[in-house]
UniProtKB/TrEMBL annotation:
This is Carbonic anhydrase. It comes from the Bacteria. Binds 1 zinc ion per subunit. Its cofactor is Zn(2+). Belongs to the beta-class carbonic anhydrase family. It comes from Dokdonia donghaensis DSW-1. InterPro entries: Carbonic_anhydrase, Carbonic_anhydrase_sf. Keywords: Metal-binding, Zinc. GO terms for molecular function: carbonate dehydratase activity; zinc ion binding. Zn(2+) binds at C58, D60, H111, C114. SUPFAM superfamilies: beta-carbonic anhydrase, cab (SSF53056).
Length: 208
């Protein structure tokens, strides 16, 4: 598979970038990874990089973005932080990927049974984790069902995964609110911003 270069990046639309990731995830799930020589791609990208997408995902060891989307060296920017939340630094990284380096798509990728989301559901207080989880707490509050407090914990898989999806949506909302630069690019059709959830039981990404 060919390494992304400026000409290919220029010719790729936001929808085209999304299709590339969807096709890549299909290959991953089918255990039919594209044939690519990563060391050749290192050489191809020594002089520069023209990734088609920026993926914001969790640090979870089970969700490496390049692998689950079957992408090579130089294909995507990968921002990872527990619970795939945004702050100023993460937004700055995504803005760099899109505005400076020309990426066409931003994906906020949550995943089922996310440990950070579980921690937020249980309101864990521990070191700097407390401040991190406070950024996920709005998603916990925004999920209305179940009403019974005893069922709103990490022990309830359905609740956890509902919060995962809500967290993806709220993260995108916050991205639009806190990054006028990305919002303008989106309005102008220069980029798309989409959310997805990766299922740790079967490797599939569902775009939400
Ligand atoms: Zn996670």
């Amino acid at each position: 598979m060919k390494t992304f270069n400026k000409a290919i990046q220029d010719a790729t639309t936001p929808q085209g970038a999304l299709d590339i990731l969807k096709e890549g995830n299909k290959r991953f799930v089918a255990a039919k990874a594209a044939d690519r020589n990563l060391l050749d791609q290192v050489k191809d990208t020594t002089g520069g990089q023209w990734p088609h997408s920026v993926v914001l995902s969790c640090i979870d060891s089970r969700v490496p973005a390049e692998i689950v989307f079957d992408q090579g060296i130089g294909d995507i920017f990968s921002a990872r932080v527990a619970g795939n939340i945004v702050n100023e630094d993460v937004l700055g990284s995504i803005e760099y990927g899109c505005k400076v380096a020309g990426s066409k798509l931003v994906v906020v990728l949550g995943h089922t049974m996310c440990g950070a989301v579980k921690g937020a559901c249980d309101d864990v207080q521990l070191g700097n984790i407390t401040a991190l989880l406070s950024k996920i707490r709005p998603a916990v509050h925004a999920v209305e069902e179940p009403m019974n407090a005893a069922d709103r914990t990490s022990a309830n898989k359905t609740f956890v995964n509902d919060v995962v999806t809500k967290n993806v949506h709220l993260t995108i909302e916050k991205m639009r609110a806190d990054s006028p630069l990305l919002t303008e690019m989106e309005k102008d059709g220069d980029i798309k911003i989409v959310g997805g959830v990766y299922d740790i039981s079967n490797g599939e990404v569902t775009f939400v």
